[in-house]
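Tutorial handout. Part one gives the primary structure; part two gives the three-dimensional structure as tokens.
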Amino acid sequence: MKRQPSERRPVDEFSIRSRILIPHLPGCHVMTQTILQSALIVLALHVSAGSITAEDDFHVLQCHTNYQTPLIPGSEFTVHQPDRPQPPRVIPGDMKSQTPPSDAIVLFDGRSLEHFQTTKWTMRDGLIIAGAGPLVTEGAFGDCQLHVEWRTPDPPTDNPMNAGNSGIFLMQKYELQVFDSYTCKIYADGSAGAIYGQTPPLVNACRPPGKWQTFDVFFRAPKFDGEQLVSPARITVLHNGVFVQVNTEILGPTRHQKSLPYERHPDRMPILFQGHGSPVAYRNIWVRDLASSNNSTKE
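Part two.
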């Protein structure tokens, strides 16, 4: 699919005022919360003013689904509800590949898959190419900061449901969706940057297929007392430098067409990258283990 230089057109007005109220983050400095809230308020004003534009080659494909799925807890929407409002479009600025900080565990730097379990995924030209089955880290993590760079195939697929489809499962249970949400319009909770089947991203900050993209993630693992859930997992995500999740509560393990309750699991588990039949490329993957930090928040 050849894309021509596109004219820009305003997106429909879309209010996200109801989604910018940020609850208290345990262990998070008040100034940090204020900055996050201010950033989202500015974003809402830009969207409502119609100053954010979309491209003519945006959403040229569309997924059509008719799932019979349960309500998402605490929501008026069902899992994968097709008419759930789409996140408004934000065109991200240019970004360069980010060098890992000194305390990061570098999971992939283009040289080997030594930090991953045996997999059918392959390496090519210093990149990881998604294959059949998953790619799972050897190490296990709880609270963490994760940086991942990824690229969806160009030309994009003609199969909308498999358009750059992959995913990053924190603790092998909680999926941050990887998807070509530039080319393909899918149900909102399946968009790139969504907590799959639960919470759509605040905005669609996807780049076109063939362009490198970044996820920068702050993840707090759920806490259990025996079999009882004490505090749910929470996640903050920047997609290409744009906030798409801010202290979002993860409602339980994510699963296609399902809404699942929490079940006790270890404090640390591997990170899983999902294979979904699309040759999504990955590079520059690193993680900071915040659970072992001297400054880690204790509850």
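Part three, for discussion. The CA atoms of residues 74 and 251 lie 9 Å apart. The first strand starts at residue 8 and ends at 10.
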